[in-house]
Amino acid sequence: MTEAQRVGQLFMVGASSQGPDAATMQAIRVDHVGSVILTDTSQRGVGEIAAISRGLQDAAGNTAKLFIATDQEGGEVQRLQGPGFDTIPSATQQGTMPPAQLRADARRWGAQLRAAGVNLNLAPVVDIVPAGTPNAPIGAMFRQFGSDPATVAAHGIAFAQGLADAGIDATSKHFPGLGRVTDNTDTSAGVTDHITTRHDAFLAPFAAAIKAGVPFVMMATADYTRIDPAHPAAFSPTIVTGMLRGDLGFRGVVISDDLGGAAQVAAYSPAARALDFIAAGGDVVLTVNSVQIPEMTAAVLSAAKADPRFRAEVDAAALRVLTAKQARGLLG
Q1: What are the structural domains of the chain?
Q2: CA 330 centroid distance within chain
Q3: Which are the contacts of 42, defined by CB distance < 8 A and separation ≥ 6?
Q4: Residue 300 near residue 314, CB atoms below 8 Å
Q5: pTM over cut 0.90
Q6: pLDDT digits over 78-114, tens only?
Q7: DSSP reduced 3-state for 51
């Protein structure tokens, strides 16, 4: 691979589930972007989504196929809802199921994604929302399996294992947890957790998921004052490399929460968002805004050419992405 192609593997771009636009296709063909996320809630059936997925894969060429992701959690967060896709209950409802049943159900939901050409689900949420706590990003939409670490860990693992049984990679999110914030990082700036510590008990579901072999972990963009008051989590070497890689021993792919349209990171330029995430130890920059891709990839490529240390980080991240692709049969 050329250096530009390796850099492209570090990006996931938004592609409408109604059909990708020209900017998305350019990001894949010209900027070598290696992953896409199907956005927008769609009533298209499995066959129609599969046709969109095939078109995206054709644009990627044969060297390395795309991770095609979506948010198929259940409840209020289920992007693909057309014929052939089950109506998935919310995570709060899933949390009342026996884990064995949830695993079986998740295998069925995963098989539907696979039939549609999707190979990566940006789920499950393993954030813990304490009972009675106002919480816009998770609790208000019933995205939590429960309010205690044991329940969330057991059901998060069951969901992820069910997806794996169907040949779909799962993503535990949003590290180190969005259950103790009030506002949503997508729509508000200055979202801050003043409670969570580096060795917090609420990290247990992430630790359990990693021990069980989850291949992807998504970083939150909130601030955590008791861990690293100087950086949002996704831009924090302490949180990404020190905690996730070091304390918890995660060796898989670290993906960001959306860095394209999130109000939480709006004060950073698109280039700075990509550079800061990769420098912190991240692997895949997620931006639903495809227009930002040329600026982001150019900044990373330029920094890699100028700084051997940063280039080594880029190469290490690309290797982790390609290793995950190899495991899913996505390398030519």
Answers
A1: 11-326 (3.20.20.300)
A2: 18
A3: 17, 18, 49, 79, 80, 81, 82
A4: yes
A5: yes
A6: 999 999 999 999 999 999 999 999 999 999 999 999 9
A7: helix
